[in-house]
Amino acid sequence: MPSLSNYYFILVPPSIYLDGNFLHGYEHLIGGLCGGVASTMTCHPFDLLKIRYSANEGSLIRPKYNGYIHAVRSILKASGFRGLYQGLSPSIIGAPVSWGMYFHLYHKVRAQTEIFPAVFANNLLAGSVTGGIVLAITNPMWVCKTRLCLQYETSQKKQKEGFGGFYRGFIPGLMGTTNGAIQFAIYNQMKDVRCKYLNLEQDSELATFDYLLFSAMSKISSTVLTFPYQVLRTRLQDQHASYNGVVDCATKTFRREGMGGLYKGMWVAILKQLPNGVVTYVVYEKSGIC
Description:
Belongs to the mitochondrial carrier (TC 2.A.29) family. The protein is mainly α. Helix content is 71%, strand content 0%. The protein has 13 helices and no strands. Helix 5 packs antiparallel against helix 6 (119-149) and helix 10 runs antiparallel to helix 13.
């Protein structure tokens, strides 16, 4: 009769307990989770401002802000310090889960997508595939976060729109997976170049300053290149707005607000995503188990 230990070996992958290290094989997952929690707690107020600016198409129902500082003062006056963390609950779950899954799955997908001669192209493909998988799982959390940041009742969402309502903005979000893919590809490319320059093996540990610089540069580049998708996703997820899909949303935004409308909230997004990305990547690299 098989012993209990036999069932343990069947249910638990050997990589988990190999060499007495229970976390062996899950280093990228844990590192991503730690980075996601740290970055979310640090940078959520920036995310709140970005969402409110991106959603503002000029409707009278929106709060009127004369700038980012005025927006912060208005929120503090109306809701206190807690107002800057409105919508944190879905983020504190969604961000760590997303980053943890992304870092964990990326390396597995990357090993199966060696189809291009250029390393950058393989990194980009792996990032896009991984991002799509993660988004399919976490999109409902981002819809809830958007609604909470815009002071909408999440409990009314399922009643009015059905379960499919939790996947509003999924298509631009899917297009937006190129954001993380571009960032991760640029980040890994710079790490590889740095390792070669220092005559180190690939993925060798580098100085903290290297991680700070590479994560900042990769985040700014990916944000500027892909920001319009964030505006479209936010507006599609806003229940006070009515659009017949991504094309309709993009057309109306461009017609009413010009090209600048597709970049509303970009500067505060960079202010948010720069420290967010830096904190996530540095904690991930320096979490002690990667």
